[in-house]
Amino acid sequence: MGGDLAPRTAVDGAVLAARRIDTGITLVGDGEAIERELARHLDRAALDLTIVHTPERVAMDESPTQALRRKPRASVKVAAELVAAGEAAALFSAGHTGATVMASHAAFGMLPGIDRPALAATLPARGTDARPGKSRAVVLLDSGANVECRPQHLVQFAMMGAAFARAALDVAEPRVALLSIGEEAGKGNELTREAHQLLRTAPVAFVGNIEAGELYSGSADVVVCDGFTGNIALKVSEGLVETVEDMLREELAETLGTRLGWLLSRRAFRNFRRRVDYAEYGGAPLLGVAGITVVGHGRSSAKAVRSAILMAARLAGAGFIEKLKVEASAQRAS
Amino acid sequence: MGGDLAPRTAVDGAVLAARRIDTGITLVGDGEAIERELARHLDRAALDLTIVHTPERVAMDESPTQALRRKPRASVKVAAELVAAGEAAALFSAGHTGATVMASHAAFGMLPGIDRPALAATLPARGTDARPGKSRAVVLLDSGANVECRPQHLVQFAMMGAAFARAALDVAEPRVALLSIGEEAGKGNELTREAHQLLRTAPVAFVGNIEAGELYSGSADVVVCDGFTGNIALKVSEGLVETVEDMLREELAETLGTRLGWLLSRRAFRNFRRRVDYAEYGGAPLLGVAGITVVGHGRSSAKAVRSAILMAARLAGAGFIEKLKVEASAQRAS
């Protein structure tokens, strides 16, 4: 029920996903509103879609702590509890990110050895092994779940990000880097200096610090940082792509010839912007909780919702949480 | 003597500046190398250029603290001391940023009421009052001088950034915003939450928090943050513009028609990248020290050096340090 276009795009996305996979999908929220959206799809009866009606929802501008306390039957809370009860394998929400994080945490608990959950954004990256016109990906975490982190949290993020890159992006041995403001171990703030030392002996392929200018360069598969820094990096990217696009459009709209240039480059731009906007890439998994949660952007399109649901189903099918548990225990023992 | 192309681009930039303004320019560094570069310019004798020979320099990979201690006659140190002695009005360096900050701090001391210096990067911004194809600017500080800041430092940065926007960008009443990860006062980390409260009563036109996605939107003229966050925002922007450009080129190089699209959009791109790269915009002033220092990027072109020297001369001519002193005292008294 969350997101700017709820419940329409969530329902449409679920319909698109249900046409692709055999897994049943449960839609949690205002039953009548959901039914109305479903009725627009002619093949609705043939799809494995169930509705669980909830009378309450968390609005985008509510405090998540207060909202979840005051609304025990809020859609995101009920959905997380369905997963915790084993009636569903994974949760997707395009609603209030904070509420989704808190509801998941409350319903699933944390993985052993993990203190904080992290949102893992998947961003486009350049790379020599990329096909022409295609690009590799880089996983940035935490991209916004925790504003304040301690060094050991970044080590946990590194381990979880590497496990995600292996499971979801088919990277055999993910190279993990620490986002800082200088490549040398001694550069950066207190958090990055201490995290650098811990990462050197952590059971991940740590390639050292990278500067923010290298984030998209393909020199690392997983980049760890605190959630404040990660969110800044992510949002600056979204804003900058819009700005470049705007300025280029102005410059290129001058004559017929340059207008042609704009038409030709516009599609390439739109593709890139989608990939920077993490939800369009399929949503950001919330790593660290003992269950699968994929968080979508409030502006998620139906296609983005579909991708996110497919990602959630893929992670569930691969036994991702069990794998993470094993790795987290191994790390704790080391 | 610093920077990737030293001393050639620094000398060429000084020559370009000397052709434009009447102010004499002193070149500090290896006298023989500087003379060799100057000899390439036929009008050299007609220009008001003086050389001060120094036998030492700080290399880009040295620790600034150690280098400045071990090399009392390093070019950046001698240059800062010339300014402190009143033999020059301002310092420009495209060399080691840390060494330039430390040498300036040591030679000039701090302005009364200011605890930490800040690098102010000028970035392009959109805005309704911009001419077509042109854009306004936004001043981002600290963009890398201090990795750890306290809330009161951000208030000092706000005041200095506003004074700089008035003096250098002709903004009558600069709107100051705090960079955070949510617009609400309660969002963000400890630093931004406390700084938000202080800024509300500070003698600046504080417009509240802005998210990183709004940095280039033109909704603020001055944006304050700690130097770690500012450097991440700046570097991510540089890296992303390169990445977008690369990906667009690949996509557009496919056919003759799309190749034309690339040719048409390339110049617009190059212009934008220059403006994101702060040195190309004319260098970043180091605000807070009791003298004028403008810091250039290590990759500064001769044109960038010229712009930075002209900015330094303009700030000196406008009595910028005296104005800042008055404002800093007024703020301290309030």
How would you sum up this structure, described in words?
The structure is a homodimer of 334-residue chains. Chain A is an alpha/beta fold. Chain A has eleven helices and eleven strands. In chain A, strands 5-6-9-7-8 form a five-stranded mixed beta sheet, sandwiched between helices. In chain A, helix 7 links the parallel strand 7 (175-180) and strand 8 (205-211). In chain A, helix 1 (8-20) crosses helix 10 (302-317), helix 6 (151-169) crosses helix 7 and helix 8 (227-252) packs antiparallel against helix 9. The longest helix of chain A has 26 residues, at 227-252. Chain A starts with 7 loop residues before the first helix and ends with a helix. Chains A and B meet through helix 8 and helix 9 of A and helix 8 and helix 9 of B.
Short description:
The structure is a homodimer of 334-residue chains. With 334 residues, chain A is an alpha/beta fold. The first copy, chain A, contains eleven helices and eleven strands.
